[in-house]
C-alpha cells in the first residue's frame, strides 16, 4: 500500500523554509504567476508563494507530482474536483483562484495566508492548547466543514496542516477535492488507500461508500491533539496506525490533561466512535457540545486501566444537562432540542455487565472499559439511560 500525506497551502516557518533542501522554481513563471519562493515540500506536492502581477496579488501555488498524469483520466478528475472546490465560497474555506498544468505537473492556485497552520500551533503547545482557544477554533472549523458537507462535499483528508490562519487568526480550511481525485486514481491503479493514517476513520480502510462522518472522525483526532499535544494512536508503520484506529480504545485524555472537564473529554470520545452510526452527526453539533462542556466542572479523575483496556471517560461526563442532546443522537435538520430526561433517584450504582465496574446511575458508558450502558431508541437513535422506559427525545417505549 502507498500512503500520501497531502501538504496544505501553508506559509514558510520562521526556520527558513525548505529552500536549502531542494532548488525549487524560484524566479520562474507558471502561467501568469511569478514564483517568489518555495514555502512547503512534501511527498505529494510542492507549495510556492507567488505573485499575480496584473492585479498585484500574492497567491500560493501547489504543484502535484507529474507521475499523476500517467493515469490519462487523472487530469479530468483533478479539474472536476478543483472546479467543485472553487465553488465552495465560504469565509472558513480557503478560496481557490485557478488551476492548470505546468511542464506536465497539475497545479492549483489559492489565496496566500500568512498566519501559519493549526499544526504549527499544536507543535508550539506541547501540553495542549488553552481550552478556550480550542473551543473558539473548533467553532470556526465546524462552520467550514458543515458548509462543505451541506454541498455534499467530503474533505477526506482533514488534519491540522489543512487548517490555515489569516493575519487575524481566523480559520480557513484547505485542500477540498484534492484527496478525492487522488483516491479515485488509487482505486483505478490499485495503489491502495490515500490519506493520512493518523487521522483516518476506521471505515476508510474498508470497502464501501464514505460519508461526511470521516471528516468528523478526523476532527476528533485533531481535537485530541489540540487538547493534549499528542495523537491518540502512534505506531511504527501506517498499517499499524490504521489497525489501532480500528481496534484499540481511545486513551484517556485526562491523563495528559487533568484540567480538562470530563464532559469535554466525552465530546471528543463521541467524535472518535469507531462505528460511524455512533459518531457525532455534524461538526456544528460537536462544536456546540464542546462549548457547553467548557463550563462543566472537572469532575472525577482519570480512571485506572482495567483488564488492559484504556478507559474512555468518567461516567459523570454522560450525565447531560437537560438542554444537551444525548450523545449519538441523529439530529434531523431543523429539529429542536430533545425533551429533558426525567431524573431517577437511586443509591445503587450501575454495574457494567462487561467488566463489573460500578458507574454513576446515569452513565451511558462504563468508566473502566467504555462498554455502552444506555438504551438506544430504535426510532431516533437517541442513547438513553438504562433505566429509561421511554425515549427522552421522541417518547418511543423502550423494551
Characterization of this structure:
This protein has a six-stranded antiparallel β-sheet, covered by helices on one side. A two-stranded antiparallel ribbon has the order 7-8. Strands 9-10 form a two-stranded antiparallel sheet. The protein is elongated, with a radius of gyration of 23 Å. It is built from eight helices and twelve strands. Helix content is 25%, strand content 13%. The protein has helices spanning 74-86, 118-123, 131-150, 178-189, 213-228, 238-247, 262-271, 283-293; strands at residues 29-30, 33-41, 46-52, 57-63, 96-102, 105-111, 163-165, 171-173, 350-351, 358-359, 375-376, 383-384. The protein has 399 residues and is an alpha+beta fold. It folds into three domains: 29-111, 2-Layer Sandwich (Phosphorylase Kinase, domain 1), CATH 3.30.200; 118-315, Transferase(Phosphotransferase) domain 1 (Transferase(Phosphotransferase), domain 1); 343-399, no CATH class.
